[in-house]
Amino acid sequence: MPENTSEIQTEIVDNLGWLKDKLIEYGTSLLMAVAIILIGFWLVKRINKMVSSLFRKKDYDPSLESFLASAISISLRILVIITALSQLGIEMTSFVALLGAAGLAIGMAFSGTLSNLAGGVMILFFKPYKVGDFIEAQGEIGHVRELRIFNTILLTLDNKTVIIPNGPLANGNMTNYSSQKNRRVDFTVGIAYGDDYDMAKNTLLEFVKEDPKIIDEEANFIGLHELADSSVNLTLRVWCKTEHYWDVYFKMNERIYKEFGSKGLNIPFPQMDVHVKND
Fold it and tell me: Which fold has domain 182-263?
């Protein structure tokens, strides 16, 4: 009986020793994996800052900066996680095969997200717009604040942030108001029947010449557009720098309203004459 007790004690000591060794082994591996993740993620942040700093020094396109920074960050974080799993002794061959199968399933489930990724690459490559441009797309209008890997951030004129997926942006209609150096401003100006047409035309020409933001070299135009029901409509088309569009638009409308009356010109409005006949 004592011999059996001695053997059991010896076996327990051996098992405890084995368990202690395994705990030390796996505990060390776990600590190393945690350290890899913490240090790795810290290094990813540092690398992102270095990349952003490099782009700013070299004066690269801000759109390219934000897009590549996002792509580099995601790729490096995945690499850090895979390295940490390897430290835990997980067989990476099987893991990569499993990851591939999971990636296929996830890709089918998140086909819209992959479409946004492809759209971001297309936007970056063909450059229909860049950071700072004023665009209209998907029913939204505003300045491009940031181009990310999956979406584009717009800042509207009333200071709202709008997030638009890159997929619809790359495949849908989009108007870029900042892509051209100059823009044309169109006006339709109505005068009453019986008013002096030449006076109206000369007055508009005077307004055009006195506005320093209107470009003289471009083909400004004034002509008779329409004999409407209640007014004679003139068309005024002038050119200006893109950044001066709204200044020219509002100033011209203000002068027309304030000064046409002093020239004997009336701005008509829709009205109806009713004739009553008594039998």
Answer: Alpha-Beta Plaits (3.30.70)
On whether the pTM is more than 0.85, the answer is no
pLDDT of residue 260: 93
pLDDT score at 1: 45
CA 244 to chain CA centroid, nearest Å? 23
233's CB contacts (< 8 A; 6+ apart) are: 188, 189, 190, 224, 225, 226, 227
Long-range residue pairs from 236-239, CB within 8 A, at least 24 positions apart, any chain? 236/186, 236/187, 236/188, 236/189, 236/204, 236/208, 237/184, 237/185, 237/186, 237/187, 238/184, 238/185, 238/187, 238/208, 238/211, 238/214, 239/182, 239/183, 239/184, 239/185, 239/214, 239/215
Query: Does the CA dihedral 208-212-217-218 come out positive or negative?
Result: negative
Residues of the chain with pLDDT under 70: 1-25, 27, 55-68, 88-112, 217-218, 279
pLDDT, position 79: 80
pLDDT the model gives residue 127 = 85
* H runs (alpha helix) in 1-61: 2-58
Amino acid 109: pLDDT: 54
Assigned CATH for 9-109: 1.10.287.1260
Topology of domain 128-176 in CATH is SH3 type barrels. (2.30.30)
Domain ranges in the chain are 9-109, 128-176, 182-263
Given this chain, do its domains 9-109 and 182-263 carry the same CATH topology? Answer: no
